[in-house]
Each structure stands twice: as C-alpha cells, then as structure tokens.
Amino acid sequence: MQNILAPSILSADFKVLGDQIRQTEEAGAGYIHFDVMDGIFVPSISFGMPVLSSIRGLTGQVMDVHLMVTEPVRYVKQFAECGADIITVHFEACEDLGATLEAIHACGVKAGISIKPGTPVEALAPYLEQAEMFLIMSVEPGFGGQAFIPESLERIRTLRDMLEEKGIEKDIEVDGGIYHSNVAEVLKAGANVIVSGSGVYKGDIRENTTGFMEILKAYE
Q: How many CB atoms neighbour CB 47 within 10 A?
C-alpha cells in the first residue's frame, strides 16, 4: 500500500500559500489536507469553500477535505463542486452517517470517516466497506500544534486488524502531532496517509517534505 503525505495548510502562511503548496508538491507530497472548522463541532473557525476553489487550480495534488463541522451532509455537494477529491466527515458529527457517505459518493468523490480520540475504534465497524478512508485523530480536533496522543498507535493497529480480518484494504489516515521523529511509529502501526501541519510548514518546507517522503518510502 502506498504511503502518502498530506500537508495541512492550516499551518501554512497564507500570504505565500501558492508557493508553499508548490514546494510540497515538488518534494513529493501527494495530498493537500484541508481542515474545515465551524466553531460549533470544534471551537475554532478556519476556512471554507472559497479558499478551496482558489487553490484547486494551483496544484495537481489530491484535495483531502476534512469537515470538522456539525451535520456536514449540508455542505458535501458544495465542497465537491469546489474541488474536493476526498471528503472526510466525523462519526460524531453526523445524525445519519450512512446517508452522509451516500451523499459524498453521489458527488463522485471518495468518502472518509474520522473519529476523535475518545471514540472507540469499534464504532467504525459497520462502515468499513462504505468509506475509502478512515481518519484516526491523534489529537483533539480543532487546534494545530498539539502533542501526539501515544494511545493512538494502538487505535491504528486495532483498525488495521479490523480491516484485515474482513480482507478489506483501505487507507488509514492519521492527523495530529506527527513529525519526522515519530512518523515511523505511526506507519508501523498500520497508517498509510500522514497528515502534518507544523512538521511540514514550520521551517524549510521543501526539506521537511523531503524528509517525510524518505521515511514514508522506507516503510512501503
């Protein structure tokens, strides 16, 4: 399974966002992670559809849209039209998760399901065949720069075991507190899509991205 880096633009400098995105693409990052926060499901407010539309044409990277919003089904169609390739919603934010996944697929994009650190991994069991990707939050969603929660490694292993028991190969994405120093542990636990904000955008972006890609390729 291919290992993929998804730099989170939440940590980017929006004055020079286009240049910073291009640096990650040229250094091998396959995705752009696009965090949408509504100030209700999570305390923070970030950005939305106009920003996604404006950066869609800057890069050939996959637009990995993470909706940290209440009842995200309300916005699925608009985000798909603005250029999302993957739309991930939170298990905890959906009144009818199955219907939300159907709405995402009806737009012709891939669906992901995310769970907070306090939600049992087993909650994903009924949906293993309905989504293309599963996102384990390794910090509490809503703020960048938090420390990785060590118990997340066991949660990743549990989810990968659940998928393998059913003979299903799906992407496991992990988001929160991931740097060069701990990404190998996350990969070994069973994740293959790695989100990093500060670890990519703080300092030399091209060098940071290249460093991540070397580690990701070593564990494929």
A: 16
**DSSP letter string over 120-133?**
-GGGGGGGTTT-SE
d(CA 9, CA 186): 21
Distance CA 199, CA 101 (A): 30
DSSP assignment string, 154-187: HHHHHHHHHHHHTT---EEEEESS--TTTHHHHH
Specify whether 171 is catalytic.
no
Determine whether 96 is an active site residue.
no
Residue among 211, 202, 209 nearest 12 (CA): 202
For residues 124 and 133, give the distance between their C-alpha atoms in angstroms, rounded to a whole number. 11
E strand or H helix at 101, and its extent?
helix 97-106
**What pLDDT, in 10s, does the model give residues 79-98?**
999 999 999 999 999 999 99
Q: For 86-131, write each residue's pLDDT tens digit.
A: 999 999 999 999 999 999 999 999 999 999 999 999 999 999 999 9
Question: Residues 38, 64, 171, 175: which is the catalytic one?
Answer: 175
Options 19, 35, 38, 161, the catalytic residue: 35
pTM, 2 dp: 0.97
